[in-house]
Amino acid sequence: MNSPSFSLTISGPPFQLFSLPHLLALAVTFCLLLLLYLFRRQLQAPAAKRAFRYALAGVLLLSEVAFQLWHVLSDSWSAAYALPLQLCSVTLLLSAIMLLTRSYRLYEITFFAGIGGAAQALLTPELFYPFPHFRFVHFFVAHAGIILACLYMTWVEGFRPTFRSVLKTMGFLNVLLVVAFVVNAWTGGNYLFVSRKPENPSLIDFLGPYPWYILSLEGVAVAIFSLLYLPFWRKTPASAPTARNLPS
Length: 248
Known about the structure:
- By secondary structure, the protein is mainly alpha-helical.
- 59% of the residues lie in helices and 0% in strands.
- The chain has seven helices and no strands.
- The protein is globular.
- This is TIGR02206 family membrane protein.
């Protein structure tokens, strides 16, 4: 039997939620996060920090370039679904810039929107292509990279969010929501899933019919961001970069 190889074309059945390839991709992501945590002290050296930041930023940017190039080569590029306006596409680009610039202001947003959005996407992917299709590999590399970037800035660079970061993230998401509404009306797309629910099973299925699930999503976002902030409540070291203590 021939082993599967990396593919640009779809073959076989579509992606199955919690299938063996999905579970293995989640396991690999977890192992990468665990390795980052275990080797966080070894990454404290300035040269190691710089190399890791640039390498991970390169992976994130190349994943987006590869995604756009795949659409062009497969003659499937459309403004309705290929613009980088989904939440994880936006946080991917912000994460790459954050890594390159060590921007705390971007960290405030990507920590909550990036981890919250990418974690939900990894668990319930809006994905139709099975392994080893390019889109399967790209999806998990990109979303795992977002979480790695946010946790790197936390565990290695020592950045810490504040409660104001939660409020800033909610403000940012609501501005992005308005942009998505306008772009969806122009392109017929469904960026941020504000025009209709995703076709694959997801958390949105439990949040009511359109358009009321959009309001429910606001509440879910606040709940998820609050849970992400909980480990930092009253535990932020005075020396950690925060909104009041930005690195020079």
